[in-house]
Amino acid sequence: MSEPDRQALVVEDDADIRALLVEVLVQAGFAVDTTASGRDAVARVRRDDPDLVTLDLGLPDLDGVEVCRQLRGAGSDAYVIMLTARDEEIDRLIGLEIGADDYLSKPFSPRELRARAMAMMRRPRRVSRTDAPDAVVFELGDLRVDAEAHVAALSGIELDLTRTEFDLLATLVSNPRRVWTRETLLSKVWGSDWVRDAHLVEVHIGNLRRKLGDDSRSGRWIRTVRGVGYRLGSG
Questions:
Q1: With 90 as the cut, is the pLDDT of residue 110 above it?
Q2: Which of 52, 132, 208, 230 has its CA 20 to 30 A from that of 46?
Q3: Domain range 6-122, its CATH number among 3.40.50.150, 3.40.50.2300, 1.10.260.40, 3.90.950.10
Q4: Do 222 and 212 touch, CB atoms closer than 8 A?
Q5: pLDDT at 109 over 50
Q6: Are 52 and 26 in contact (CB under 8 A)?
Q7: If phi over 0 gives left and psi between -120 and 50 gives alpha, with beta otherwise, what is residue 29?
Q8: Euclidean distance between the first and final Cα of the chain, in Å?
């Protein structure tokens, strides 16, 4: 039997939850490594470059928010799913703002975790349009998004985006005249029927606006259509 070509790192200090996470991710086709230490997690991600990290926020040595901050600061583009207690809403929002892709509240459903992990791995690296199925580069004003190379640049300067931020921007730019509802963006970008939290879209839209040098009031690039969703402006 061939070795899995997807790697995951489970960062969790509770042995029972850690064992459950390993079981679920192995069933989903991942080769799984584990650690109970935030500092060790940062070192392992830098060394092994996994595709997916499940990250407990309540680690004993280095909290999960700081781990996520250090991973993104080091340039890791691994998908990060945070595991949070129900009373950690502020930490969860901070984690999303600094680059986590998704979160699950404890106790979580193993089926839901597996569905979300597999949906992340199915995200296309190309963004297609029904009227131009072969197009993989989109340009709008000074914004250029190469969906095949997975590179976005503004005025010739490459943007430092997480995978989820890039997928969200690529979806918006694939049809800039369209108003994208939060529900459609959840389906397109997160790709799982389990995901229902519009906060995921709102926080990542906020991250994108900051990286585009946007202003949420003027909506130079990403414009809010009140009561509906978002569309891309002309810059």
A1: yes
A2: 208
A3: 3.40.50.2300
A4: yes
A5: yes
A6: no
A7: left
A8: 51
Strand spans (E) along 162-232: 180-181, 222-225, 229-232
How far is 33 from 147, CA to CA, in rounded Å?
30
What secondary structure does DSSP assign to 180-200, as a single string?
EEHHHHIIIII--TT---HHH
Query: Contact, 41 vs 35, CB < 8 A?
Result: yes
Q: Domain spanning 137-232 has what CATH number?
A: 1.10.10.10
Q: What is the pLDDT of residues 195-232, one digit of tens each?
A: 677 888 999 999 999 999 886 555 679 998 888 899 98
Q: In the prediction, which pLDDT does 198 show?
A: 80
Listed range (30-44, 49-63, 143-157, 214-228) with the worst mean pLDDT = 214-228
pLDDT value of residue 130: 39
Q: Look-up: residue for tokens 């900051």? A: 210
CB 97 within 8 A of CB 207: yes
Q: Are 42 and 70 in contact (CB under 8 A)?
A: yes
Domain residue extents for the chain: 6-122, 137-232
